[in-house]
């Protein structure tokens, strides 16, 4: 019983970690895509 509970918790942690990781990757991608545009606007 305890082992199955631990497995479930580990799986939930992995799922949460993957979600956060994907979200941070998306945010970084958006920042990289938007940063050059904003810098160009500032230069003009």
Task: Give a structural overview.
The mean pLDDT is 89. The protein is mainly alpha-helical and 44 residues long. It is rod-shaped and about 65 Å long. It has one helix at 2-43.
Question: What's the helix-strand series?
Answer: H
Shape annotation: rod-shaped
The biggest beta sheet, please? none
- Uncertain runs are none
How many H/I helical runs?
A: 1
The number of strands is: 0
* Percent helix: over 70%
Q: Please give the alpha-carbon distance between the first and last residues.
A: 65 Å
Kindly report the average pLDDT value. 89
Radius of gyration, in Å, reads 19 Å
Structural category is mainly alpha
Strand-residue fraction?
Answer: under 5%
Characteristic key phrases:
95% helix; membrane; transmembrane helix; 44 residues; transmembrane
Secondary structure topology:
Elements: H1 2-43
Quick overview of this protein structure:
By secondary structure, this protein is an all-alpha fold. The protein has one helix at 2-43.
